[in-house]
Amino acid sequence: MGIRRYNWKKILISILWILSGIGTIVLLGAAMQQKSQRPCADIRIEITGPEKLMFIDEKDILQMMQSGGPLKGN
Question: What pTM, to 2 d.p., does this model score?
């Protein structure tokens, strides 16, 4: 029977890469969850371009958005 020799350095480096990948995914998920729970504080609508060619303005968009109910605080 042959004795197996493991390259412990490669195994340790692989484990550290796997742990750092898992840590990154966990932190990303926590950041996304925290951002989605933050309430809407303000609504800003900005339309750029020549005013002659616009068929809709900021007031019209704000009215359409608020027709379903108030957005601030949600």
Answer: 0.45
